[in-house]
Structure prediction request, 306 residues.
Amino acid sequence: MWFKNLLIYRLTQDLPFDAEALETALATKLARPCASQELTTYGFVAPFGKGDDAPLVHVSGDFLLISARKEERILPGSVVRDAVKEKVEEIEAEQMRKVYKKERDQIKDEIVQAFLPRAFIRRSSTFAAIAPKQGLILVNSASPKRAEDLLSTLREVIGTLPVRPLTVKMSPTATMTEWVTTQKAADDFFVLDECELRDTHEDGGIVRCKRQDLTSEEIQLHLSTGKVVTQLSLAWQDKLSFVLDDKMVVKRLKFEDLLQDQAEQDGGEEALGQLDASFTLMMLTFGDYLPALVEALGGEEMPQGI
Prediction:
């Protein structure tokens, strides 16, 4: 149970997050399959395990884990367009008249409805960890849209969720550019071998570097001509590595072997024990890592009125 991406949200008010009450609330909007004429459904599922007895809220110490699942029918746009074109051509040939936009749209709707029961089904899950004492919700996604789907659905079932993306006082771009330029990151952080450089001018170029020595003259030359770092691979202590972008999104999180080995040792023989141990250790690690990351970026920005 190791998160691979991280979107960080700040609770702007204290919420109790009683596990039993949250369990009851999530049960009012369970994930379910798409009906034959539905494009998509969304609801909560048990983060660990399957079956009616699996809890929708996994509790580990002060932390809660929830999961939502989206199910959608996939209709390739090209298939729909081809079917619409074929039908329009058939009508125009048989009735010797032009088919205009309003009728085309109606034909498209009819074709979509006819194709839906045969469409492919795609399922995707999104996990979120709630840390009430830290006032944080951490979503395992790099997509703000996916995170907002989960948060808005959570808000719907519990009635309120005063939350906003966590923001920092210094621009991540400025901080990362300084780290690469000076070849020194904040304490306990280490620059690795991947970055994205952007020209700040309109329609400026983008340079993506992988497996590169970021202290090289080539990289420094790009920086000297005005490019800035908008994405950077970093390590923190000897515990994890990640890619940070200019919007404070943490991507491609990788927990080092020593943490994974410790979780395996703590979890025992049962699969659920292994999942619980890895989740607990991950959250305890985040308890040190996230404050260090925020501090390295100048501290948390608190909007006026918060």
